[in-house]
Amino acid sequence: MKKIIVLLVLATLLASDFKAQEQTVLDGAYVKEHNATKRVIPYPPLREADVMWSKRIWRKIDLREKLNHPFFYPRTDIEDRKSLFGVIRHALLVEGSLTAYSLGPAFDDDEFRYPMTQNEVDTLLNPVVTRYIENLDTGELEPIQTAEPVESSIVKEYVIKEDWIFDKQRSERYVRIIGIAPKAEDRDPSTGEIRGNKWLFWLYFPECRYVFANADVYNRQNDAQRRTFEDLFQQRMFASYIVKESNVYDREIQDYAIGLDALLEAEDIKGQLFEIEHDLWHY
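RE: above sequence
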């Protein structure tokens, strides 16, 4: 009995020494005391009577491009940083601070008309997939159900919907992002081959602004200077290309142009947006 008591005392002392050693370890040169409670800068008030010209644009952000790497990395969450989808996933499943909107029965709705429940979001981001594995004894394919959560590493694209507006009261052009939608790799259930990218859901961007404003991203120039996803979007620090503009047919560019012709059409729309702003001025 005495030996057991002595061993317990020694184990307690060793555990306390180990905890004391852990507390003295500082992963950095200084203690970071600033908490992530950044306020969102409100948009300037805008009246319908002051809107002289408006155009709705859809853009695609390809995370494989170098300028967009801060949205994609790190693939696994670290203590002070998450990828953009890691921030969105945490806000949806843990905090419950964001609302995901389904693309509707036809899988083409982007007007935020179908809010998803918490169970629907959890099923979408943590699906149970049936895989067929060969039985080494019989040589037959046997179905096996496994949980394969949607990780940040398979989210390769984002689509943003934005409005370009010219305010005649201030003689200023605004770009307001209305919604953002992640797209993940679509794999064949039987072979696991990538078949393209599939839509997940839409998020109402004004609701996302506070979440994005309190999520740090990597700053290439200075690790001590704080930069957030809100800063990247508001300062337009991303590479993208236009995939759709508001039109009478409600069709995307890929519906009437492919390959190089689609890229040239996107650049032509981009040029028209800047020319319209310049044409509104008289010198």
